[in-house]
Amino acid sequence: MQEEKRVSMFDNAVKQFDRAASIMGLDPNLREVLVKPKRELIVNFPVRMDDGTTKVFTGYRVQHNMTLGPAKGGIRYHQNVTLDEVKALAFWMTWKSAVVNIPYGGAKGGVTVEPSQLSFSELERLSRRFFYEIQVILGEEIDIPAPDVNTDGQVMSWYMDTYSMSKGHTSLGIVTGKPVEIGGSVGRTEATGRGINICLQEAVNYLRDKGKLNKKDEEITVAIQGFGNVGSNLALTLTEESKMRLIAISDVSGGLYKEHGFTAAEIRALMERTKNRKKLLLEVNEEGYKEISNEELLMLNVDILSPCAMENAITIDNSKDIQAKLIVEGANGPLTPEADEILLSKNVFIVPDFLANSGGVTVSYFEWLQGMQWDFWELEDVRKALHKKMTSAFYDVIKTMEKYEIDMRTAAYIKAIDRVATATKLRGIYP
Ligand SMILES: NC(=O)C1=CN([C@@H]2O[C@H](COP(=O)(O)OP(=O)(O)OC[C@H]3O[C@@H](n4cnc5c(N)ncnc54)[C@H](OP(=O)(O)O)[C@@H]3O)[C@@H](O)[C@H]2O)C=CC1
Ligand SMILES: O=C(O)CCC(=O)C(=O)O
């Protein structure tokens, strides 16, 4: 396990890319162009703390590729954020936008900070100062941030306001994931979870068609790791819109298990009570749900597992004990490459992260279009457009997978690389 952790996340991501590049016969010159990040910005910036002291924090913004359009990707606040991690996440954003066919490149940002240690006003000062520092490479048509781990609509509001203050006018297009009251889109908060559920349902349909899953929805069991924006909204859409049985959920404090499956009403209540970073286990076990650890959740005897928390949740150590036959990756990079190989060799069907969780950036694109035009859509239209984009991307990747007889992750890379490579060749390299 220690051995795996020392490996660079960016290098791991490039290994996935290289597998696809070699199968599709990508020109080695183009490979060079497509792998390297375009810009990497590191900022050390001061924040005045409530007790009058000043602390210096480190933050990053990496723009990986901007060939198809403006760079796009979230900003995370977490104590483990490093440049290497942000580079990997920016790299995946490029392929995410390309696979779901929206006109964006890839970027990501992060600040190395444990946000639970900050007061509300310290968080505001940190957010505003960080955004101001990275503003030198941002713009409504250049690079558009969004939420990620431990950032939300409130943080996006501060970002938008900071940028708008310096421009002298309200700039809706500078970030997505804003609250609806200040120009966000209906349906953005739920979009990543809803999109994962679309992929999950289509994967079940596909496996049934191929005779690889012979169960009715009522008989299918699901476990979800992570109960933040992504995991909780997946839990909600799944329990509201299908008859499958969601039997386990978790956050960093641990998991809750219910043999007959959580109802949508229970998920809603748990979402309400874990608002403002309150923990599942510490706050909510009055109903007598059985408590399990995160490790136990991953190894449950379920049909479907969706890791929706952090990267490297499933490693060489625990992958041998995973019993799920379908994994739908909600988090970015939840499987190490070694775990991926082990699970594929056990015939586990894996819907890869940058396809499964592309619903977030897709509705971010819809939000950006609405903001740039100052014209806002209805929820039904957002959901319909998301469904169309996601199912079309899902079956594009399935076709590629069947054509090359490969796994779904490699197929998603081939589809995405082909789009960005074609655009790169058309635009040319000058001088
Ligand atoms: N937000 C978005 O639109 C998108 C997010 N993603 C990816 O999805 C993943 C989750 O993001 P998001 O939901 O936004 O983040 P949040 O911060 O909203 O939630 C993260 C969740 O993961 C839990 N968690 C953190 N560490 C662990 C751990 N070690 N073990 C178990 N659970 C843990 C957190 O628990 P606690 O709250 O108790 O800390 C929380 O429930 C990330 O990989 C992110 O990059 C991908 C696409 C879009
Ligand atoms: O909504 C966005 O722009 C990007 C969200 C994100 O960071 C991700 O998909 O990983």
UniProtKB/TrEMBL annotation:
Family per record: Belongs to the Glu/Leu/Phe/Val dehydrogenases family.
Domain Glutamate/phenylalanine/leucine/valine/L-tryptophan dehydrogenase C-terminal: 185-428
Xref: Gene3D superfamilies: Leucine Dehydrogenase, chain A, domain 1, NAD(P)-binding Rossmann-like Domain
Family matches, as Pfam families: ELFV_dehydrog, ELFV_dehydrog_N
Active site: 108 (proton donor)
Binding site residues for NAD(+): 192, 229
Keyword Nucleotide-binding found: yes
Official protein name in the record: Glutamate dehydrogenase
Residues flagged as site, Important for catalysis: 148
Record keywords: NAD, Nucleotide-binding, Oxidoreductase
Record-level Gene Ontology MF annotations: glutamate dehydrogenase (NAD+) activity; nucleotide binding
Keyword Methyltransferase in record: no
Matching InterPro entries: Aminoacid_DH-like_N_sf (IPR046346), Glu/Leu/Phe/Val/Trp_DH (IPR006095), Glu/Leu/Phe/Val/Trp_DH_C (IPR006096), Glu/Leu/Phe/Val/Trp_DH_dimer (IPR006097), Glu_DH (IPR014362), NAD(P)-bd_dom_sf (IPR036291), NAD_bind_Glu_DH (IPR033922)
Protein's GO biological process: L-glutamate catabolic process
Binding-site list for substrate: 72, 96, 364
Gene: gdhA
